[in-house]
Amino acid sequence: MIGTMAQAAPYVGYVYPNETDIPWSVLIVIYPYITGLVAGAFIVSSLYHVFGMERFRTVARFALLTAVSFMFFVPVPLLFHLGKPQRAFNAVLTPHWTSAMSAFSYVAGFYICLLLLEIWFAFRADIVSLSKTKGGLLGRAYRILTLGSDDVSGNALAIDHKFAFALAVIGIPAAGGLHGYVGFLFGSLKSREWWSSDLMPIIFLLSAVVSGIGLLVVLYVAYSKFRKAALDDACLQGLAKTMWAFLTVVLLIEGLELLEMFYKQLEGIEMVQRLIEGPIRYGMFLQWGLSLMVLATLSYLILTHARGRILATGMFAAGIGMMLGVLAMRWNVVIGGQELSKTMKGLLIYYPEILGHEGLLAVLFIFLCPFIVLWLVTRFLPPWEPEAGKEVSS
Amino acid sequence: MESDTSEAKKAEPGSALRRNFLRAIGAGVACAGVWMNDPLRAATPAEEAAPPDIPGYDWRKHKWAFGVDATRCIGCLRCVEACKAENGVTQDAHHFRTWVERYVYLEGDEHARVDSQSDPGNIAASGSQQAFRFDNRYASAPVEKAFFVPKLCNHCTHPACVQVCPTGATYQTPDGVVLIDHSYCIGCQYCVQACPYGAREFNHAMGVTDKCTWCYHRITKGLQPACVEVCPVEARVFGDRNDPDSPISRFIRNNRVSVLKPQTGNAPNVFYAGIDKEVS
Ligand code: SF4
Ligand code: SF4
Fold it and tell me: Domain of A64: which CATH number?
C-alpha cells in the first residue's frame, strides 16, 4: 500500500482540495490511546508507592508491568504512519525544538528508562531469589538481571524501597508530562477548530488515567479468574473510587468546554454542531453514553459498598466501558478534528482501510502486542504477592 | 518526479547543512535558544545556514511576495495545470500546490456557494483528474455575484508548518520562502495539520510532504513562478518587495490588499485584492 493514497475522503460543503487526503489515520487514534493506558496504569502503582495507599499494593507491581508493556508499543503506530519510517531518527538526531513532536523520542525514552528502573527496584528481591532457584537459560537471565547484587538483607531492601519511592515520585510528573504532552500535540495547533483548545492537555491526561485504570481493572479481574486467585475487594473498591473521581472531573471539564463553545457561538459553530451530529455522532454517543453508564455503575458500587461477585462483575464492566469510551473519545478528537474542514464550510468523512499498513487490521495487531508482551513479562516476573491480598482485605 | 527532487535539492539549500549531524545539533541548540527568547515567533529564517549554491543569486538581497487580483481571475485553471507539470505534483484531484476556488452568490443568497476544480461536478466536466475546468452549473441560474480566488502557500512570515516540523525538514529562507527538504522529511504530516490554509499535500509516491515553493528553482534564476508565467490575465503577480518598482510592490501599493486568516498570526506573504468576507 505504500506509495498510494488510501482513499479520497468524501465530503459535503466546501473543503480545501488537499484535505480530501486525510493526513492522520486510525493509527494516530491508538497512539494517544496506548499512551493514555500507560499513564493510567502507572498512576495506580504510584498511589501505592508514593501515596502509601496500602490497598493498591495487590496490583501495584502488576500495574508497573502493564505500563511498561504498553509503553514499548507507543512508538509503533507512529512509525507505521511515517511516510519515511527509515528516517525516523532524523527527529532524534536533529530535533527541531519548536516542534512538540521533536520531543517525543526524548519524553518516551526517558519514561521507558524510568519505568524499567522502577520495575527493577520493585522486583529486585524476587529476581535474586529466582536467580538462585532457576537453572538453565532462565536462571542465567535472572542472574544477569541481578546486575551483580544479590544482597537482600533488610537494609538493602530498605534502600531499594527508597529508590523505588524516589523513582515513583519522579514518575508521576513524568507520566503526567507524557500524556499532557500528547494533548499539547493536538491542542497547540491553531489550524483546527476542534483541536485548538487550552484544555486539551488536561482532558487528555484525565481521560488517560480513567482508561488506564479501566485497563488495569479488566486485566486484574481476568488474570485473577485465570489464576483462580481471590480478588482483593478493598483494592477493587479503591480502584472504583479513583476511577470515579477522575471520571467525574473529566466529564465536567469536557462538558463545560462543549457548553462554552456552544454558548459563545463563535463563527463556524454551525459546522461544529454538524460535525457532532454527523461524522462523529456514533463516536460521541459511545464516548458520552459509556462514560455516564460507567459513572452510574461506579456510583452504585461505591454507595452500596459492593463486594465479591457484584463488585468484580461491575468493575470488569466499568473497565471495559471506560476503555471503549476513551477509545471513542480519541477517535472523536483525532479523526473528528480532521473531518471538520479548515474552511469551516464543509465536513469530510474518514473511512479507515481494513488492510494496508494504516488499516484496522494493523491497528488491531499493534494493540494486541502489548497484551502478549505483558503475558510473557508476568511469567518472567510474577507480580502477585500471594499473601498481600489477604493481609489487606482482612 | 525524480529529476524534480534532485533539482529541488540543488535549489533548496538546507539539505547539505542538515545532513551534517554535529552542525545540525548546533542549529538545534540555537533554535532552542531563539525559542526560549520568543516562543511565539519560533520560526527563524535560516540566516545562519550556508547560502544555496546558485550562481549569481544572493538570498539576502530579496524579499519575495505574491499578489492575487481576484477581480481579474477567469478561472481558466491554466495555473493549476502548469504547476502540476512544472513541479511533478501528483496527478489527481486531491493533491495541489495551487488551486482555484469559485465563489457564487445567487440572488438572495446570504452566503457564497463555493467549489474548486476538485469538485466532482467539475471533474466530470473535464473528464479527467489531470486536466481541470469549471463546469457550467450556473449557466441558467440567477447569479448575483461571482468571482474566482486562486490559492497557494502563503509563505507566511510566521509559518505554523515550520514551527511544528520535528526534524527541521521544512524551513524558511532569508528571501522569505518556505521550503521542504525532501531528502530529510520523515513524512509525519504534522505540518500538513498545522497549516491553516490547506496548502500542504502528501506525496504518497515519495513518502514526503510537498507544497508550493513559488517555483524556487525558477525565481532564483530570474524567472517567474510557472503559474504567474501562464496566467493570461495577470491575476497572479510576483516579485521582490525590496524593489519598489517590482510588480508586487506596485500591486500592494496600488490596491487595498488583505491576507487570508490574519487571526492565525501567520502573517501571510500572499496578498489579495478583490476578495470578500466569505473567502478564508
Ligand atoms: S501557508 Fe501553510 S504551508 Fe505555507 S508557509 Fe503558511 S503555514 Fe506553511
Ligand atoms: S512531514 Fe516532513 S516537513 Fe512536514 S512536519 Fe513532518 S518532517 Fe517536517
Answer: 1.20.1630.10
Question: Range of A169's domain?
Answer: 20-380
User: By residue range, what is the domain housing residue B34?
Assistant: 2-42
Same structural domain, B19 and B149:
no
User: In Å, what is the CA distance from B257 to each residue of B176, B177, B266, B269?
Assistant: 19, 20, 16, 11
Q: How far apart are CA A229 and CA A257, in angstroms?
A: 43
Q: What share of chain B is helix, strand, coil (3-state, %, to 5)?
A: 30, 20, 50
Together in a domain, B12 and B149: no
Q: Is A3 on the interface with B (CB under 8 A)?
A: yes
Maximum separation of any 2 CA atoms in chain B, in Å = 65
Q: Does residue A363 belong to any structural domain of this protein?
A: yes
In a domain, A3, yes or no: no
In degrees rounded to 5, what are phi and psi of residue B64?
-75, 150
Which set of grid coordinates corresponds to residue B183? Answer: 531528502
CA dist A144 and B208 (Å) reads: 43
Kindly state the cell numbers that stand for B12: 533548496
Residue B125 inside a domain? The answer is: yes
The minimum CA-CA distance between A335 and chain B, rounded to whole Å, is 12
Domain assignment of residue B244, yes or no: yes
Are B146 and B264 found together in one domain? Answer: yes
Residue B275 to residue B280: CA distance in whole angstroms: 9
Q: How many CB pairs under 8 A join A and B?
A: 162
d(CA B255, CA B247): 12
DSSP B41: G
Q: Look at chain B and report how many structural domains it folds into.
A: 2
On whether both B30 and B73 belong to a single domain, the answer is no
- Asked if residue A175 lies in contact with residue A105, where contact means CB atoms within 8 angstroms, the answer is no
Distance between alpha carbon A171 and the CA centroid of its chain, in Å?
A: 15
Q: What is the ipTM of this complex?
A: 0.92
Q: Does any domain span residue B266?
A: yes
Q: Are B193 and A24 in contact (CB under 8 A)?
A: yes
Name the grid cell of A136: 538453565
Instruction: Give residues with Cβ within 8 angstroms of B50, minimum separation 6.
Output: B13, B16, B17
**pLDDT truncated to tens, each residue of chain B (280 aa)?**
333 444 444 444 444 444 444 444 444 444 444 444 444 444 455 556 678 888 889 999 999 999 999 999 999 999 999 999 999 999 999 999 999 999 999 999 999 999 999 999 999 999 999 899 999 999 999 999 999 999 999 999 999 999 999 999 999 999 999 999 999 999 999 999 999 999 999 999 999 999 999 999 999 999 999 999 999 999 999 999 999 999 999 999 999 999 999 999 999 999 999 999 999 8
Assess if residue A387 is contained within a domain.
no
A6 lies in a domain?
A: no
Element containing residue A37 per DSSP (H, E):
helix A27-49
Q: Report how far residue A25's alpha carbon sits from residue A23's, in angstroms, rounded to the nearest whole number.
A: 7
Distance from CA of B180 to the nearest CA of A (A): 14
pTM of the model: 0.90
Shared domain for B14 and B99, answered yes or no, is no
Please report, for the domain that includes residue B146, its CATH number.
Answer: 3.30.70.20
Cα-to-centroid distance, B260 and ligand 1 (Å): 11
Which residue's CA is the nearest one to ligand 1's atom 5? B155
- Domains in chain A, number: 1
